[in-house]
Amino acid sequence: MREGLKFLLDQQPDMTVIGEAVDGEDAFQQAKKLTPDVVVMDISMPRCNGMQATERLKQACPKIKVLVLSAYENIDYLRRLLKAGASGYVTKRSAAMELTRAIRTVNTGETYLDSASAGILASDMAGRSPTSDVKTGEPISPRETEVLRDIARGYSNKEIAARLQISIKTVETYKARLMEKLKLRSRVDIVRYASHQGWLEEN
Hints:
This protein is of the alpha/beta class. It folds into two domains: 2-113, Response regulator (Rossmann fold), CATH 3.40.50; 129-201, Arc Repressor Mutant, subunit A, CATH 1.10.10.10. It has helices at 2-10, 24-34, 50-60, 75-84, 96-107, 115-128, 142-152, 157-164, 168-182, 187-197; strands spanning 38-42, 65-70, 88-91, 112-113. A four-stranded parallel beta sheet has the order 1-2-3-4. The radius of gyration is 17 Å and the shape is globular. The two termini are 29 Å apart.
């Protein structure tokens, strides 16, 4: 699997694999030594699992982004990993294009959840905090809706700008305006809102 991932990532013009690890302890030591921009962390590894390795790495090197690759669609794993400092979560059944998009997204400082994980998290949060709590006196325009939907689906600001044929700065302006209008504080809140709107289930 590592060989397949290495081949995939090395084919990307903006990515270079600078290290590989055989288990969690090795991943922690290699990342500390090589200080990559992004670590793709498997959750199931011997000696030190991905959860433990993520916690240790974020404590030792907080600037390194950790994207977790997991076979599990489990809310407990997801909550704990985000709390530990992971920047993204992608299930192994996700398409290869989604993995590369996730890496680019977390590298910009944003959080990435694949559609399955985003849906699980949104459903969990919805059960504890209904959307009806979100109040806004200002209407959301069709273009703002498009931007919000794409953010929730995991697209980066650059990708949204290209899809909608607007500038990255305009995307950032829309995002800031929407966060203010809807009283949302993070991308997790955006995913929750989008889930309640039914946007994550749309094709």
